[in-house]
Automatic annotation (TrEMBL):
Keyword terms: DNA damage, SOS response
Protein name: ATPase
Record keyword DNA damage present: yes
Presence of keyword DNA damage: yes
Family matches, as InterPro entries: ATPase_AAA_core (IPR003959), P-loop_NTPase (IPR027417), RecF-like (IPR014555)
Source organism (scientific name): Amycolatopsis thermophila
Lineage: Bacteria, Bacillati, Actinomycetota, Actinomycetes, Pseudonocardiales
Domain ATPase AAA-type core span(s) in chain numbering: 23-337
Length: 379
């Protein structure tokens, strides 16, 4: 389980170190940095797929994602210095019960290439336990040079990889450093859901050929197949309870014609079931969250961004109960500004409230000594 998340110089996240629990709720007013935290987690997951550089390019490149404020801010929000004296860097990392990982992106040495704005890995480290220490390092990368520990604990000869490639993809060999492969696969299992579409043309409203679907797709187009998979090989009772909690005396059915799977929603008082195309936005979105949270194949980490969107307030207690149940099988981070949902989860979750101070995102009530232990690898 992840116990610490650290971000430095990513958008409004100038210097943030957060404690994580089995179920963590991140809240705060609009503009406090919740979405930036969600994006930072996605960037970390992209590192496991060697896709972090491309992900930064989609955000406009490294310069557009860097903290735009001064290097230092005084106690009362006063700016101290307007000229940068330190190397440009965006740093992301996490610590956990078993392993910790950190990366440091910077800009290349200026040259004649048209790719001089491509971010490069300046440092990248993997270690045992939640906090980086020299004795716990398993893989250590400085620029293109990488060294890993062998079975005896000795460092291997240094090897070289591309400056835009991650050690998690290039050196995740079970014979060389099995821990790299373990962490890579865990990062790749992280799952993100962000505001499912429910408009008339939404994929979730279309009947489609169904296959066994233990993991709901990010667009929700395989909703019927995912629900049927839960009924057949997941937790059919939990699914029925989740639907009945939100819509008393209602149930979900999936039928098939010539391989096409169709969702049928039986609601008390109606003479016939409703198809996906007929459901209200809130009902369809709630069923999408049911399929996502009751997945028969839970991830290492599940991140939900504003799951309350388009849901009637009466549905939030049922959604909270569903999230709490899912947290028994996966670590979950919920990003939300809906206080009814935050309050419904408060008894079972650690709540982190973000706020802005001099343009930078901070954790409300966190003093310097309250932060989890964390050390960045130095360049």
């Amino acid at each position: 389980m992840l116990t610490t998340l650290a971000v430095e110089n990513y958008r409004s996240l100038r210097d943030l170190v957060l404690p994580l629990s089995r179920l963590t709720v991140v809240t705060g007013v609009n503009g406090s940095g919740k979405s930036n935290l969600y994006r930072a987690l996605r960037l970390l997951a992209d590192a496991g797929r060697n896709g972090a550089v491309a992900a930064l390019a989609r955000e406009g490149g490294l310069p557009s994602t860097l903290w735009a404020g001064p290097e230092a801010v005084g106690k009362h929000g006063t700016v101290r210095g307007t000229v940068r004296t330190k190397p440009v860097g965006l740093r992301l990392g996490f610590g956990g019960d078993e392993f910790g990982y950190a990366l440091d992106f910077g800009l290349p040495v200026p040259g004649e290439s048209m790719f001089d704005l491509d971010p490069e890995y300046k440092r990248e480290c993997l270690w045992r336990g939640p906090v980086l220490r020299p004795a716990t390092l398993l893989a250590d990368r400085a620029g293109p040079a990488v060294r890993v520990r062998d079975d005896s604990g000795a460092w291997t000869a240094s090897s070289r990889i591309g400056l835009t490639d991650s050690v998690l993809s290039e050196l995740a060999d079970p014979r060389a450093c099995p821990e790299l492969m373990i962490v890579r696969e865990r990062l790749r299992s992280w799952r993100f859901y962000d505001q499912f579409r429910t408009d008339p043309g939404a994929p979730a409203r279309q009947d489609r050929v169904g296959t066994r679907t233990p993991v709901l797709d990010h667009d929700g187009g395989d909703l019927a197949a995912a629900l049927r998979t839960i009924q057949e090989s997941g937790d059919d009772e939990a699914l029925a309870t989740a639907v009945a909690d939100a819509f008393p005396r209602s149930r979900v059915e999936v039928d098939g014609v010539d391989g096409l799977l169709r969702l049928r929603f039986h609601q008390h008082g109606l003479l016939r079931p409703l198809g996906a195309a007929e459901l209200s936005d809130g009902t369809l979105r709630y069923l999408l969250w049911v399929a996502a949270l009751l997945s028969p194949r839970p991830p290492e980490l599940l991140v939900l961004n504003e799951p309350e969107t388009s849901l009637h307030p009466d549905l939030l207690p049922a959604l909270a109960a569903l999230i709490v149940k899912a947290a028994q099988r996966a670590q979950i981070v919920v990003v939300s500004h809906a206080q009814p949902l935050v309050q419904a989860l408060a008894e079972h979750a650690a709540t982190l409230e973000l706020e802005k101070s001099a343009g930078a995102t901070t954790l409300a009530g966190q003093g310097r000594l309250d932060r989890p232990a964390w050390h960045w690898p130095k360049r």
